[in-house]
Each structure stands twice: as C-alpha cells, then as structure tokens.
Amino acid sequence: MLMRKTVLAVVCLLLAVQSAAFAAGTVLVPGKENSPEIRIPDGIPMPPDPDGAAICWKGEAGFLIRVPEGWRNVPQSAAHYNVCLMAIPDGSSPQDFPALLYPRIFFRSPNKSPADMADNAAQVARRDLARAPGGENISVHAGESFVSAPNLPVEIRYFDNGPYPNVFEAVAYVVHDTSVLGLVLSAKTRDARDAFLPALLKCARDVHPIQVKDARARQKNK
User: Fold this and answer.
1) What is the CATH number assigned to the segment(s) 2-220?
2) Residue 192 and residue 88: Cα distance in Å, rounded?
3) First CA to last CA across the chain, in angstroms?
4) What pTM, to 2 d.p., does this model score?
5) 87 SS3 class
6) pLDDT beneath 70, residues of the chain
C-alpha cells in the first residue's frame, strides 16, 4: 500500500510539472514514471500544481480527477483515510470544514445501464450507512443525468439523513467501460450540500479515464 501511495504521488507530480512531455495515448504505467508509456489523452489541460489533481486507480481502471475551483486537495487527510484525493473548500481547515469531496472506484457490471448501475451502487451505500448510528432513516433519490466532457455517462444520487457527521451527501457516478468512479460530496447540513453541489458537478464533468498497465494490479484481480 505504501508503494502504491508513493507511485501515485510521484505520477501526480510528474503530471503537474511535465505536461509538455505527454503526447497521444491513454496509458499509465505505475512504477515506470520515466517511461514514454505514461500517457494522458490529448487535449487535456494539465493542472498547475500537484495539489490540483490526482490519478485514482483500481485494477487497470483509472481516472484523472481535478479539484474544482475554490477547493483544495489535502494529501495528508487523503492518506489518513486511504483515498487518493480528499478536497475541502478554500478557507476551511482539515479540522473544520463545511463539506468534503472524495472518490471511490468499483467495477461495473457490463449488463447494466448507467442508471441501473448508479441505483444499485446507491442502494449498497444506503444499506451500509443505515447500519451506522444515526443512519436508520437514510433515504436515497435520483438526481441529474448528463454526459461528461470525455463522453462518459454521469448519474447523480442524493443521500439524506445519514449518520453524523456526513448527514447529507450527493454522489456523482461516472460510468466507464469496466469501472465506475463515485465522487462523493459529504456535508453536515442539506444547505451546505446544496451550496457545494455545483463543485461536484463540475468535478464530474472534468473527469477523464486513464488506462493503467500494472502487473501487480492484474495479479490481484486473478
């Protein structure tokens, strides 16, 4: 796990400072940071600093995620909670923030539509949250559906009355060929969630898929 975190940190730094080195292709090879095989899709503007984006991956599926304007990544908090990115609004601290944004990746069933995939994932999340103290009355309802900049279906689901402290959430399910990225916006109040919802939608629209070639990932998935 430490090796994986180190690889991701190095790759994100490279993406930030060596944008001119990336040409056509969509392949990322962890552990080969100096290899010409590291690629991102053409036409994607690079983030200005390593805190402005992250590459999150599971198995051979990855996503380039940019922190929305007005937010900042907190790498120390992300590492503590074992996620590749955790963003909070500018002006807030990791100890006191009105909302937070973080990603989850899971594999997609090829026989389900994006809407069905989002519904199933949301019901699994609702069941898990309902087990926590204060989550007995949690409810889920569908929200917006749209297509992202790289033509990926996005489905929004809202979670109300969950367990403290993230009582109100919105999740953007970004559906790719074999995987789904869940971008989670968590807030203590409904007003805070709704106020920061545009940041979640912007983040989901800007997500780009990355193909990961990594022998360790393939071995784990056998």
Assistant:
1) 3.40.1000.10
2) 12
3) 18
4) 0.76
5) strand
6) 1-51, 212-222
CB 11 within 8 A of CB 193: no
Sign of CA dihedral 93, 62, 120, 1: negative
Strand partners, 27: 211
In the 3-class helix/strand/coil scheme, how is 110-136 assigned residue by residue? Answer: CCCCHHHHHHHHHHHHHHHHHCCCCCC
For the chain, the residue count is 222
pLDDT for the residue 10: 30
**Domain extents for the chain?**
2-220
Res 36: pLDDT: 42
- For residue 72, count other CB atoms closer than 10 A to its CB: 16
Residue pair 52/44 in contact (Cβ under 8 Å)? The answer is no
Whole-number pLDDT of residue 138 = 93
Quickly count: other Cβ atoms within 10 Å of residue 165's Cβ: 10
Q: Which two tokens stand for residue 169?
A: 């959430």
Provide the 10 A C-beta neighbour count for residue 118.
26
Quote the CA–CA distance of 104 and 125 in Å, as a whole number.
11
Exposed, middle or buried by CB within 10 Å (0-12, 13-18, 19+), for 33? Answer: middle
Q: Are 169 and 190 in contact (CB under 8 A)?
A: no
Q: What is the DSSP string of 135-150?
A: -TT-EEEEEEEEE-TT
